[in-house]
Amino acid sequence: MIQLYMFYLGGNAGKSNIEVHDVQFVAVNKIEEAYPVLRDCSSD
What positions does the domain DUF1543 occupy (predicted)? Predict the structure, then answer.
């Protein structure tokens, strides 16, 4: 069954003093199926 997952992602922005955060929603059968989708989103 497809479920909607919410991921809160964060990291630093190079040499800056701030952190970058993002929320991504992914609809998948298993949480592991979301990993490639999240990797693709992070390269934008």
Answer: 16-39
